[in-house]
Design a protein that fits this description.
Elements: E1 4-7, H1 15-20, H2 28-42, E2 48-51, H3 62-65, E3 71-75, H4 84-90, E4 94-96, E5 100-102, E6 106-108
Parallel strand pairs: 1-2, 2-3, 3-4
Antiparallel strand pairs: 5-6
Length: 113
């Protein structure tokens, strides 16, 4: 059975987020490895994952995308600075600049509405 997941503010590969959010990691590699392992414990390849902003910073995080299970969609946040084509090429099924509505009910937005 396919599941749908929602997650936001992963901030993959962002060194500053460890201090800013008091995340319990020794460094970026430790954080990325832990988050990938936790993600893959929950998500199966056929599951859908909506990442509601702030996937990561820079281009390093795109290298991690193929390590994450699931069919992934990105609703861009303020830290998602690359082009939509860049994120699609990296592995997102689709990328959105603005909030979206799914199943005629759920509004997905990185910014509070």
């Amino acid at each position: 059975m396919m599941s749908i997941y929602f997650i936001a503010d992963t901030h993959f590969s962002e060194e500053n987020i460890i201090k800013y959010e008091n995340r319990p990691f020794q460094g970026v590699q430790d954080m990325d490895d832990s988050m990938i392992a936790n993600w893959n414990r929950m998500v199966k390849e056929e599951d859908t994952v909506y990442l509601v902003g702030d996937f990561g910073a820079g281009r390093r995080e795109a290298l991690l995308l193929d390590k994450l299970k699931g069919i992934k969609y990105l609703i861009k946040g303020n830290h998602d600075m690359e082009t939509n084509d860049y994120y699609r090429t990296a592995g997102f099924q689709e990328v959105y600049d603005h909030p979206i509505i799914i199943e005629d009910f759920w509004i997905l937005s990185h910014e509070p509405l």
